[in-house]
Amino acid sequence: MGNNIYDNQKSIQELKAGDKIDAFVLVKSYDVKKTTAGKLYVDLNLVDRTGEINAKIWENPKASEEILVENSIVKVRGEILEWGGALQLKVNKIRALLENENIQISQLVPSAPIEPNEMLKEVKDFADKIKDIQIRTLVNNILEKYNNKLLFYPAAKKNHHSYRGGLLYHVLRMLKTGEMISMIYGSLNTDYIFAGVILHDICKVLEMDSDDFGVVSDYTMEGKLLGHIIQGVKEIEIEGEKIGLDREKSIVLQHMILSHHYEPEYGSPKKPMTIESEVLHYLDIIDARMFDFENVLKGVEEGRFSDRVWVLDNRSVYKPIDNNIK
Amino acid sequence: MGNNIYDNQKSIQELKAGDKIDAFVLVKSYDVKKTTAGKLYVDLNLVDRTGEINAKIWENPKASEEILVENSIVKVRGEILEWGGALQLKVNKIRALLENENIQISQLVPSAPIEPNEMLKEVKDFADKIKDIQIRTLVNNILEKYNNKLLFYPAAKKNHHSYRGGLLYHVLRMLKTGEMISMIYGSLNTDYIFAGVILHDICKVLEMDSDDFGVVSDYTMEGKLLGHIIQGVKEIEIEGEKIGLDREKSIVLQHMILSHHYEPEYGSPKKPMTIESEVLHYLDIIDARMFDFENVLKGVEEGRFSDRVWVLDNRSVYKPIDNNIK
Amino acid sequence: MGNNIYDNQKSIQELKAGDKIDAFVLVKSYDVKKTTAGKLYVDLNLVDRTGEINAKIWENPKASEEILVENSIVKVRGEILEWGGALQLKVNKIRALLENENIQISQLVPSAPIEPNEMLKEVKDFADKIKDIQIRTLVNNILEKYNNKLLFYPAAKKNHHSYRGGLLYHVLRMLKTGEMISMIYGSLNTDYIFAGVILHDICKVLEMDSDDFGVVSDYTMEGKLLGHIIQGVKEIEIEGEKIGLDREKSIVLQHMILSHHYEPEYGSPKKPMTIESEVLHYLDIIDARMFDFENVLKGVEEGRFSDRVWVLDNRSVYKPIDNNIK
Amino acid sequence: MGNNIYDNQKSIQELKAGDKIDAFVLVKSYDVKKTTAGKLYVDLNLVDRTGEINAKIWENPKASEEILVENSIVKVRGEILEWGGALQLKVNKIRALLENENIQISQLVPSAPIEPNEMLKEVKDFADKIKDIQIRTLVNNILEKYNNKLLFYPAAKKNHHSYRGGLLYHVLRMLKTGEMISMIYGSLNTDYIFAGVILHDICKVLEMDSDDFGVVSDYTMEGKLLGHIIQGVKEIEIEGEKIGLDREKSIVLQHMILSHHYEPEYGSPKKPMTIESEVLHYLDIIDARMFDFENVLKGVEEGRFSDRVWVLDNRSVYKPIDNNIK
Amino acid sequence: MGNNIYDNQKSIQELKAGDKIDAFVLVKSYDVKKTTAGKLYVDLNLVDRTGEINAKIWENPKASEEILVENSIVKVRGEILEWGGALQLKVNKIRALLENENIQISQLVPSAPIEPNEMLKEVKDFADKIKDIQIRTLVNNILEKYNNKLLFYPAAKKNHHSYRGGLLYHVLRMLKTGEMISMIYGSLNTDYIFAGVILHDICKVLEMDSDDFGVVSDYTMEGKLLGHIIQGVKEIEIEGEKIGLDREKSIVLQHMILSHHYEPEYGSPKKPMTIESEVLHYLDIIDARMFDFENVLKGVEEGRFSDRVWVLDNRSVYKPIDNNIK
Amino acid sequence: MGNNIYDNQKSIQELKAGDKIDAFVLVKSYDVKKTTAGKLYVDLNLVDRTGEINAKIWENPKASEEILVENSIVKVRGEILEWGGALQLKVNKIRALLENENIQISQLVPSAPIEPNEMLKEVKDFADKIKDIQIRTLVNNILEKYNNKLLFYPAAKKNHHSYRGGLLYHVLRMLKTGEMISMIYGSLNTDYIFAGVILHDICKVLEMDSDDFGVVSDYTMEGKLLGHIIQGVKEIEIEGEKIGLDREKSIVLQHMILSHHYEPEYGSPKKPMTIESEVLHYLDIIDARMFDFENVLKGVEEGRFSDRVWVLDNRSVYKPIDNNIK
Fold first, then answer.
1. Confidence band of C3 (pLDDT split at 50, 70, 90)
2. Is C271 in CB contact (< 8 Å) with chain D?
3. Do C325 and B279 touch (CB under 8 A)?
4. Hey, which end of chain F has fewer CB within 10 Å, N or C?
5. Is residue D70 situated within a structural domain?
6. Is residue E298 very low, low, confident or very high in pLDDT (cuts 50, 70, 90)?
7. F286 and F212 belong to one structural domain
8. Does ipTM surpass 0.90 in this model?
9. What is the rounded average pLDDT for all residues in chain B?
10. Which pLDDT band holds residue D98 (cuts at 50, 70, 90)?
11. Do residues C75 and C173 share a domain?
């Protein structure tokens, strides 16, 4: 990832009560508010690659407000307090980025570890391995259609892969695992595996509204009323019709999308009925779980337990001594 | 329904061990088999409007086989035995229908109590009450498209309304109740109520294979892998596109179809999020339950309980004294 | 509803942080408290027809306390702050109602949209439609017995119909729907439908303690240990005995009350076993859901989603464009 | 129980395919039937204290029929066959009991191990230990009212204590355990413990129809529509009213009956809310489970597992070596 | 319990907003913190036998800090405020215990009502009643091994018996009940009952880290990854091997430990399959529930309901009038 | 697998009613029984690699009985009947294997597709890839200990891999997938992956009694009372102690075994808390599901659905056209 600003400043994730900081951060949002006593102050949310912190500017709120722009980089100086059980930054000084300070927004936005264009290329390489020309065409057409959004969409609003490029990163790791598993279980048809993986979540670009930083503000109206699984089924039906995709192949692919959450209460009204749809589910869940475990264990010392993690069914997870997570 | 053969013969539902019968019935299926001892015999399944019974022809099986044709009417004479806990007809005599015996297949096939064309007309009258021209056009186009099948499709393979014309009958009673409920709950939009009711199950004509007698042999490939709810959602998407239906209306209608089973484990990945989709679910379930109760109570005397009924969660139901079910 | 004070003042439901208000409200409760710093202040809860807001009087708490009486009307002036995510009224001025200010408490208390005496008359008209003289007598006797309480009892402590007259309003709408459904499903015995609806929740008057404003302070001892369903079963047993009600009819009615919540986990140890008890459940749930949907959708713009609604299983509900809810 | 016929004959429970028997048994039911081949035969169900077996009389069915009377004792000779996985007795000879054969029906009917009158006396002794005169009177009145039925009623149609006198035996063992537990947990009020135990199942005499042998033919109409829990609640309400029982005590007792199955899905709409109702549940379940375990383990050798037992959640249970069950 | 400091001071459980106190308490933990405004203060948690309260020292925090030692006794003077819905003690004066103030820590630490050494002796007496020499040796060896920890370990981190000596107290009451129940149900083998009860929770001393006051700071690494049930199974396997315990007895005992939580979701992968393991479960749950009920009801007046109690499935429990809980 | 007898005879799986057969099969069990009419006959169960069929010998049962030996090979001639919905072989001729008929039992016993010794060698090669010497020693010692049993044990009594060598085959495929997944998810420690996979089910050799053909007659006493998961945990504890395995590593491995069924109701009282135990679960379930799908799809034509498959949650599965399963 090269030389970046974290070499010189503490990341938000590392902060503790009592710390003094002097760092570049991204302004996610801000608001001018009034205390019960009637005093004005600025309430801000600041992020870097590692996390987010709430901050308050008690002095000269009006002056500060003038330099604040959402999604811009600022430099802040202040100290960390604990308030109501949460950390809070008391800002003593804040200023805009100087011209000569060569910092990219991408350095401050949580993102997938591989560059989006590179990921997209790799995904397209997998698409090209599909032997059936109809299915390959379908997959390439849909990739083309959503090309732009794929470059920044996260895989979720919260939870696993909820960062810039997360959707592509999720798909890419599933494709690699899917290719390997198909070597061991020879009865798997890689055409369906590759197509199913690439298309399984692709309608998340229709289900959620994401900004260019991979931050999802909300679900769309169609996303809420139907959801990306149903949207994905329709996508294949319609794009398949356009290219004369065999009905049997179209239905088999639609079924893969429909069943990939496996259980009705997770959104799949049908359980997998083909061997490739069965595998698709496990590729999906393994990648999600690996993401969550790695994400949690990053912040845990060897021989220690994490706090309870909501997305892992509230488990507290353990990092054995001398294992490989750096 | 006029004067029919039931005036002169015992119905299958009424038969008891020891009865002698001499009746017209429909041959649903037959097969020549061999006993463990090596003796040939004919194994048949016979139906009338009220039910089905297994029968055996022990004498001259070859001769009998010659006159047997599936879905044809025969006259049988014989006696009812109990074998392994079930009733069985021992056939003593069997012959084909004579030319002068004026009996229609429809008299022997379980059917809805209203004539199909009349029901379809009533349904179309409701469609015409839809005030929004786009939605009305959509509904009429889809009704037109499946016109033929609607005239005989049942509403299910087993359980409620699983007889000839059952789908239309189910829709029609829901429309009437929907119209009345909308008078009491003025916030309901009857356009969505009528459209939702008419379209909610319409893709059962794609999900199941039914013969002209309303007997479903099996689910279709797409029916099994996707199901009539998902098929219905796609139907509205595609037919809506064709007529330029406003996207918002299309999604609202698709959501009604998607959510009408209410619970994920019954096939709806989204719960109702509009007031009309909430009501649609109750219209559906009330009509199904009324059908099942009426169907069971027909055979129960006042002041008595029925046997346990699988489709009613295995309940045994009670018929109060002097109530109105004839 | 006539000309009322809402013509001239913002309702509590409409308030936003920053608003200045000058309005008549009802004092629900108040208390004099001390800050950590030792300063006295008055903490109040104020209501109008549309909702409730917490308020603080920081200046002259002792003086204010003198004019405060629970369930009295006051006029307040102040401004709306946001504190800890919730709105709070900072009271600048407060005074009792003047003699010449012609405002009724009923104008400030959330109530059913129909006048209680009118509702009770309509319910009694339905009772009179019961053809069986024994059942009619039973229903009239019980209505008579709880006549006074029925005029103001809500249908619940929280959730659906939890306002003045809510119980009668709930029963009335169910009666109307029940009458209509009985036209479509001719096998229903309206005697049991009308009696069941009128009696199904009537022991809520024994289960809860409500004041004259329809506000439930708590459940009664018997309410907590037995509940209105069991209380209702006993009511019919005992009142039935008094008038020589046929045992069969009494048990059928008791069963309707017992089973009307349908599922054991919602309080019904028996599922409905008669067709009228099956319908009673759906009349009940439809009216509750319509109430909740209408209640939520009132505050939602067309084409928008509500917040998540706890009583609707935490659903966020959608109001389609151009629908009929005003 | 003294010297009985089991000293001289194999019990039904011990029979194996291939055995020849010559034994006194009770005729539970019989029927003359016809084979598919048209041959008449007698189909009987025979019982002794240990179980039941199906039997067939192939020769001279008409003659046999003449001596058969339900609930009479006969002597049969025959051999045990295995047919369709079940044992069947092929009867070679059958005759009525001779005058000089001094065998009582009670010797052949499954019964509680203590004589009914003795059990009833012991239960009444516990009732007399109730210190509160109102509660003691209530309990004694209800015992008196159902005195006759209690002498033979089983505790269930199937499962635990489903034999003659089973209800009293169940209550008696619970009373003894309840008394002991109250010594350890001093906060328990034995008045409520004794009254609760005696009354908890007493309306099973209203819920089920039992013959004098403790065999339940069916549930009653009120039993099916309400159930013994609800019937028991009403019993206390009504009998309590008659003697002027304090309302608080009446409701506390009604709550004990109502909650003693603990979970809604087992028939208790309220969970126990008093310490005595909590204990009542455990007294009940312990006695039922001890009965089931002892019943199953009787037939199991040390160091072996039983077959799966439906009433014990389909568990196969193990009898350790050298344990105390004889 | 003799004459103790509660004779002269209000217990923490009794405190109400507005109270002034002057009392001996134990310092559980303390910390020096800074307000948003930058002011230092001391934040403390204080306990006595009855509960815990948060306290603040606003004046001279530095001076106070010097006399504070965790787990030491202090005397505090101050007043009780309500802050954010919780009680808080504003400390006006605090000092260490004086030499002549003869107060024991045990007087301030929540503990079982019987002296630990006495309880341990009683438990060992039960162990000596085990007739099988191998099982008796096993039980005595394990008791010996954990002798020291047993004298202070609680039975849980939170919930039932979570106080000093709670584990022994729990075991002792279960032994007494077990002995009595075995008198009624003669098929129970008291060897397994006594051994099973003594060993069922004994590995809680390995699962949790408790200080000498019976306060559990956390679960151990092995406790989290395996749990006391699995640890207990291994304990018997290994200690059994050492003394040549018959394999059959060892497995039967291991099964008792493994199955005593009854349901998989509570930690038992096998349900009880022996009669003694079935009973062990009920001894365990009865003692836990009696503890919880008694604990809650202590603070409730006759004829009143408690608040909702989380550990009792969120029930609110009722204390009947004139019952025996003092 | 070379040239085998299936080249010359129809396999049991392929049989249909009406077929005549003349084939070598293995006698799994046999019994002489009597018809209701008193006639003796032989009832046999015959197997080959593909399945099992019930057979009857009606003629000369005594003579046939003399040549029958369990687990011996016989040649049978006869015809296939359908009886009660199941296929049955009516044996016309049966004889023992002739000396010159060179057929091995292994040719008739369902087995894993790889030779056991070869599988065991491959598994040991994976064990040797474990870098940590303690863990490697542990794994090798346990493999050595159960070496003999591993060569023929199935992975289950019924369901997936329930054939000769099934346990090793299951482990081997999981090892291969585990190795590949570890390339993609670099944070996985292959030492734990390999050790966890090899040990996860190894105590099935203690849980079940299998004969040399991989047919499990029953579970062992310890298997029923504890189960292979708990047995596996103890195995690591004890074998780890012997070689001085670090306690942390031992517990981490024990936790992997304990948690690998993931859900309590499937036998894991703890959910995975390390990343390797999380993955172990998915390796296990993927291999089981691939086995089941491949097993079912073998018998299904392209473009068709299978019957419902109990072990796949009663799903009917679909085989797409032109896929790779031969």
1. very low
2. no
3. no
4. C
5. yes
6. confident
7. yes
8. no
9. 90
10. confident
11. no
Q: Are residues D48 and D121 in the same domain?
A: no
Determine the distance in angstroms separating the CA of F291 from the nearest CA of chain D, rounded to an integer.
Answer: 28
E122 is a domain residue = yes
Tokens representing E138? 């096993």
In a domain, E300, yes or no: no
Q: What's the pLDDT band for B326 if we cut at 50, 70, 90?
A: very low
Condensed to tens digits (0 to 9), the pLDDT of residues F65-75 reads 888 988 788 99
Spatial CA neighbour of C197 closest among C231, C173, C229, C230: C173
Q: Which of F59, F86, F107 is the last residue of a domain?
A: F107
Domain count of the fold of chain E? 2
Reported as type and span, the H/E element at residue A122 is: helix A116-128
Q: Do both D28 and D135 map to the same domain? A: no
Instruction: Please name the residue that has the structure tokens 């699984």.
Output: A229
Domain CATH number, residue B89: 2.40.50.140
Give the lowest-confidence range in A264-273, D278-287, F105-114, F316-325. Answer: F316-325
Which SS3 state, helix, strand or coil, does residue A147 take? Answer: helix
Whether residue E84 lies within 8 A of chain D, CB to CB, comes out as no
Q: How many CB atoms lie within 10 A of CB D212?
A: 12
F300 contact partners, CB below 8 Å, separation of at least 6: F306, F317, F319
List Cβ neighbours of E225 (8 Å cut-off, separation of 6 or more).
Answer: A318, F251, F252, F254, F255, F258, F270, F273
What does the pLDDT average to over D218-246?
97
Residue A86: other Cβ atoms inside 10 A: 10
Min Cα separation F270/chain B (Å): 27
**Is F81 within 8 Å of B34 when comparing Cβ atoms?**
yes
Rounded Cα gap, residues D152 and D170, in angstroms: 12
| Option in C34, C36, C225 nearest E318 (CB) | C225
Name which of E282, E252, E257 is nearest E269 in CA terms: E257
Token output for E91:
């400390």
CA C231 → CA C254, C261, E6, distances in Å?
Answer: 10, 14, 45
List, for residues B211-266, the tens digit of each pLDDT value: 877 878 899 999 999 999 999 999 999 999 999 999 999 999 999 999 999 999 99
Structural domain includes residue C309: no
Q: Decide: helix, strand or coil at residue D303.
A: coil
Asked whether the beta carbons of E83 and E50 are under 8 A apart, the reply is: no
E58/E205 same-domain check: no
- pTM of the predicted model over 0.90: no
Residue span of the structural domain in which B82 resides: 5-107
> Per-residue pLDDT tens for A208-221?
998 877 878 899 99
Do F12 and F142 fall into the same domain? no
Do D49 and D98 reside in the same domain of the chain? yes
Show Cβ contacts of residue F191 under 8 Å, excluding neighbours closer than 6 positions.
Answer: F130, F131, F132, F135, F136
Q: Are residues D150 and D80 in the same domain?
A: no
* Chain-chain contact of E226 with F268 (C-beta, under 8 angstroms): no
Which of A82-91, D24-33, F3-12 bottoms out in mean pLDDT, i.e. has the lowest? F3-12
Domain end, chosen from A50, A81, A107, is at A107
* Contact yes or no for D269 and C273 at CB 8 A: no
Chain A residue numbers touching C88 (CB-CB < 8 A): 36
